[in-house]
Write a structure and sequence with these properties.
The protein is 15% helix and 39% strand. By secondary structure, it is mainly beta. It has 3 domains: 6-56, no CATH class; 61-111, no CATH class; 115-274, 7 Propeller (Methylamine Dehydrogenase, Chain H).
Length: 275
């Protein structure tokens, strides 16, 4: 069996993900022709498409917002403005008071033809906001760090990540997952604020290319959980956020066909296994 369209996969597809401008000219020409053909058939429906879009938007709450999540003396939230396309991240005093927006997705998207927020997480001392976005449609997310007081981003820039962020307790570093050339989440790194990404520390690397790796903060706030697995098997490691330079600790070794998750109990996580 042969695939007549296999040639549409660029031999340099990894480079194309990072920079669409390097797409093979023959492939680009073919896609442009296909788009032109579609337009020739459906172009006359443009007014109807706009009518349907207005009707659908009229049935949703455009200024939707999350329930404020209290943390320390603040309550954090994200919302949309009416007519907007992207989220706004902010906070307000926990007991009531004026809200403050630190990230305005609509404003950030103005200078880009494509914009997609992913992660956004404030530091434990409430002074910084780490956030990630993809501005090329590559699904590689770049992480930046914004100062709540000034509203400006620092020079810190961490690229080619899955967008997830977990802060250390001392607010001097954060953990993230880096995607490889085949767009697989295989490595967990630690970035120290004020340094270049090339100086980051590799914390963990998954060896099974069939597994996916991601991280998140435990509900206790004590650990960064490195979670990996496939559709049948899982494995987790814990990073002590009060001692971020310590190596991750394995919860339970992987066993084929066994998936588990952890729950906090005092200062430890105990695996709950199920088959």
């Amino acid at each position: 069996m042969s695939d007549d369209y296999a040639w549409l996969k660029d031999d340099k597809w990894q480079e194309v993900l990072r920079d669409p401008g390097v797409l093979d000219p023959d492939i680009r020409a073919y896609l442009d022709e296909e788009n032109g053909y579609t337009e020739s058939l459906l172009g006359h429906t443009a007014p109807l498409q706009k009518t349907l879009a207005r009707e659908m938007r009229g049935r949703i709450k455009e200024d939707d917002s999350s329930v404020p999540s209290p943390d320390g003396s603040f309550a954090y939230f994200h919302k949309f403005r009416e007519g907007g396309q992207h989220e706004l991240f902010g906070r307000m005093p926990r007991d009531s008071g004026e809200s403050h927006i630190v990230l305005d997705g609509d404003a950030l998207a103005k200078d880009h033809t494509y914009f997609n927020f992913r992660g956004s997480r404030h530091s434990p001392d409430h002074k910084l906001q780490a956030w990630s976005a993809d501005t090329r449609g590559s699904e590689y997310f770049s992480i930046r760090v914004r100062d709540w007081a000034t509203g400006k981003d620092s020079d810190d820039l961490v690229e080619e990540t899955d967008g997830g962020i977990v802060w250390s307790k001392d607010c001097k570093s954060f953990f993230y997952v880096r995607l490889d050339d085949n767009h697989r989440p295989m490595q967990v790194w630690r970035h120290r604020l004020g340094t270049k990404q090339t100086d980051d520390t590799l914390v963990y690397e998954e060896q099974d290319s069939g597994w996916r790796t991601h991280l998140y903060e435990s509900t206790s706030g004590l650990f960064c959980v490195i979670a990996g697995g496939d559709h049948e098997t899982s494995e987790q490691r814990l990073i002590d956020l009060e001692n971020p330079e310590a190596p991750p600790r394995l919860v339970a070794a992987r066993e084929e066909g066994v998936q588990y998750s952890g729950r906090p109990r005092r200062r430890a996580l105990h695996p709950h296994q199920c088959r």
